[in-house]
Amino acid sequence: MSKPKPRQKSSLWLTALPLYIFTLLFVLGPLVYMVVLSFQQRAEVWGVLNEYTLDNYLNILQPVYLNTFLQSFKLALASTGCIILIGYPFGYFMAKLPGKWKGRMMLVLMVPFWTNSLIRLYGWIIIFRANGPLDALAMGLGLTDEPLKLLYTYPAVLVGMVYVLLEFMILAVYSSAEKMDWGLVEAARDLGASPLRAFWTVTFKLTLPGLLSGVILTFIPSMGLFFIADILGGNKIVLVGSLIQDQLMRAHNWPFAAALSVILMAMTSLMIALYKRITHTSELEGIL
Amino acid sequence: MKKLISLLTAAALCLALAGCGGSGSEATRQVNLYTWENMFPQEVLDAFTEETGIQVNYSNFDTDETMLARLEAAEGGDYDVVLADDYIIETAIAEGLVAPLDKEALSNYGNIDPFYQGQFYDPDDTYTVPMGSGVQTIVYDPARVSVDVKGYKDLWDPAFADSIAITSNFRVMNGMALKILGESYNTSDVATIQAAGQKLLELAPNIRLIKDDNVQDDLLSGEVSAAVMYTSQVTMACLANPELEVVYPEEGVGFGIMAMFVPSAAPHSAEAHEFINYLLRPEVAKQVFEFQGYYCTNQASYDLIEPEMQDYLILPEEFKSNTEMIENISAEASEAHVQVWTEFRSACGL
Amino acid sequence: MKAKRKFRLSYLYLGLVVLFLYLPIALVAVYSFNAGRLSSVWEGFSLRWYQELFRDKELFEALWNSIVLGVCASCGAAVIGTLGAVGFQRLRWRSKGVVEYISTLPMMTPEIILGMVSMAFFSLIGLPFGMTTLIIGHTAFCIPYVYMLVKARLVGMDKSLVEAARDLGAGELQAFFDVTLPLLAPAIASGMLLSFVMSFDDVIISLFVTGVNVNTLPIKIYTQLRTGVTPEINALCVLMLAVTVAGVGLSALLGRLGGHKKKEETL
């Protein structure tokens, strides 16, 4: 294929300028400040000194804080796993719905999405509460005699995480499944592939970008969404987000909070780099 | 579709402009009040506006730290009256963000209970007017536990397994252990703080909930059987269920004051003083405290408070001698507190 | 036959997940009619909290602020993000990759840090706090959503369409408006919707970059938690739900009209 030359003269690149300027001014500016802050020394009671140090980063290596990262990571992994298990089939089935129903389902999904997440989590408190609806149901069915004491437990936090983040996964998977050429699946079937094999070699590969971007959209926030651990977990599960919150709001140690954030960001950047590496594999490009 | 998009864009731009331009102020007198949500009943603010023509703009912050950060960013400007906690006011004064009060303009100044004055954050009462006080008390439901709670140490009783709620203010919580060890809340000795941390770890199996907001709900619904709570929550809980037992811990009562101040570059200083003076009136203070549920700091209004609320809104005389306030401590000690607390919380989650 | 049964199973699955998504909201709605102040115990049916809600003018002011903010931020993000995604495709600057990466950073920075450093930065450059700073702050974290969605759409787009338009004599701008933009519209729309929702839900960044007397709805809800949620919030939630449902219904209606148009176009 020969590419026509005139396209090179395009002046459409000018449209990138607003993003360029906005990003440099209002995103890079604050972030640079954060990195600088992470190398500064905290003042005795409040604020920072103009002295530079690596102490904030060394501080993270203490077992207490490493443990927090580990705990946070485990929870994020567990909730992302659940979200994939529930959200991927949903996005997939939704894309297979007849045209009219696709739109309707999208509308159905929009309503919870538009509702304030604090309020939605509040609904779960009502459900999990001692002698609440769930207890009543379990006792009515004769499963238990006593309240289940579900509120303020690890499973409650997991449910909350899945609940708040699930729709990101559904929408991501749906958008890539919807774009997919279903003819390819049929072709694979015609060529003698079993349904499972056809799914694995065609559908799964084609929806992988959606799945992975869903993972990014759910895994990263679940490391920081400390208010879910607060509200449903009784604050007993320490996430990196809660640690940052404590450092800022109670210990007044801004530089350490900034250092924690830099590490958290480095970890998420790593994930995104990985995502790019995976989605840019040659097979995918071949199909595009 | 093209037209729709350009229409939408145009509409968005118009809205953006309207939003930016809409903040222009009128010539009316106003006062910018900055404090937590739900500290003043709307009737009190409306009555002030009606009487003086001064409009009250009520802005909220979530924590003292947000308030101080924003006041710093505004260099002591933007706000006229700030109501916040004691320790943060000490920092704000040290940073020069607080203006001395003009006592001449405060004719009701004498209504303040002197017990709440001359405290560490403002020893000469130059800058602040106290507006509410709270203590950390233990509240428990005798219907659910047979333990006779006298002080903090009783919370360690195995009978309380997985049924205690505490607040997330770690200075207060680590402070419980410090108090049991007979130490001060404000010790700067790292080894002592760590020893308290070891003591605190033993409490972990009893903790069901760490929460600042709305804990009374959990106590009333039976989610927990005992809770360490702030005064306003105690008041709300006891009004809903008078059977609850309130304990002032024998090891010592942790105690805090909320106070109002006028920032150093307040745009409406005269109106701010007028507003503070209005709040110091006995009948106004009565309304405010009955709404807040904190201990009343206005002695002139003690007799006005409704009889059934007297017990909850006036600090019992006998505990006044056994109180200690939580003050700002060294960076090193505060770092030790965070570590102890983080370790404790992780232990609770297991 | 076999295929039909499979489909039914998948419908059941979809239905169950939708139930999971709606159950908590339904309960919040039910408890808005609770007579008692404490939401833990059902004390009978009452409209008391709706009455209180309508008397709370601050709450409505906050709601209005949130709507204005959400619309401004999502539109700003839509314009900047879309143009950016289109432009970046053509751009050959070396710094492009870095800037692209930085522009998506707000999505993965803890909100509290973003809020804090934005505040420090705005005060450094002397921007007065208020609606303007709120809009800038929110636009910053909304852009990545629009940008990523539009970019994904651009990658999947059939480039020959634009080329065909150019071959037929359309100018660069005309090709952009007549071909590219309509093709991008669904991505832009969903990016804007996502942005609006994120902005409408944000508490932490708003707390830091807001100004005097500009409360947003989430700030109100969040700070009310300190003194205890009253069912007034539940009542508000029901009202917002009603508005959402109405909005969703309206867009369904518009969608149906749009759908007809599409059919005409293909004909």
Written account of the structure:
The complex is a heterotrimer of chains A (288), B (350) and C (267). With 288 residues, chain A is an all-alpha fold. Chain A contains 13 helices and 2 strands. Chain A has a domain of 198 residues: MetI-like fold. In chain A, helix 3 packs across helix 7, helix 3 packs across helix 9 and helix 11 runs antiparallel to helix 12. By secondary structure, chain B is an alpha/beta fold. The N terminus of chain B is likely disordered. Chain C has 267 residues and is an all-alpha fold. Chain C has a domain of 173 residues: MetI-like (MetI-like fold), CATH 1.10.3720.10. In chain C, helix 3 crosses helix 10 and helix 7 packs antiparallel against helix 8. Chains in contact: A-B, A-C, B-C. At the A-C interface, helix 1, helix 3, helix 4, helix 5 and helix 7 of A face helix 1, helix 3, helix 4, helix 5 and helix 6 of C.
Number of domains of chain B: 2
CATH level-four homologous superfamily name of the domain at 54-115 and 152-287 in chain A:
MetI-like
Strand elements of chain A, count: 2
The CATH architecture designation of the domain at 54-115 and 152-287 in chain A is Orthogonal Bundle
Q: Report mean pLDDT of chain A, rounded to a whole number.
A: 83
Oligomer: heterotrimer
What's the overall geometry of chain B?
globular
**Rg result of chain A:** 24 Å
Q: Briefly, what CATH class of the largest domain in chain B? A: Alpha Beta
User: Biggest interface and its residues per chain?
Assistant: A-C, 83 and 94 residues
Largest sheet of chain B: 7 strands, mixed
- Spans of chain A with pLDDT under 50 lasting ≥5 residues? 1-8, 281-288
Output the strand order for the largest sheet of chain A. Answer: 1-2
Order of helices and strands of chain B: HEHEHEHEEEEHHEHEHEEHHHEH
Q: What gyration radius of chain B follows from the Cα positions, in whole Å? A: 23 Å
Taken from the alpha-carbon principal axes, the silhouette of chain A is globular
Unreliable stretches of chain B: 1-26
Which features does this protein show?
heterotrimer, A: 288 residues, 2 strands, 73% helix, disordered C terminus, B: alpha/beta, seven-stranded mixed sheet, five-stranded mixed sheet, 12 helices, 12 strands, 39% helix, 17% strand
